[in-house]
Design brief:
By secondary structure, the protein is mostly helical. It has 1 helix and no strands.
């Protein structure tokens, strides 16, 4: 078969997962008691790569 397929290791391929990093502080996070939880360092660190990659995919799809 001569059909094209992305490599499993290709991080730019459509099947590549978007990273969400784990941090113990995310477990049991009380968002009611901490109204600015989303600006804490560990939340930003955990979701930064995911949000950047997701935004790039969304913007690229809509242009």
């Amino acid at each position: 078969m001569d059909a094209f397929n992305f490599s499993l290791e290709d991080e730019d391929a459509p099947h590549a997962p978007l990273p969400i990093l784990f941090h113990g502080g995310l477990v049991g996070l009380n968002h009611v008691a901490t109204p600015d939880w989303y600006s804490s360092h560990f939340v930003r660190k955990a979701y930064d790569q995911f949000l950047t990659a997701a935004a790039e995919l969304i913007i690229e799809e809509n242009t």
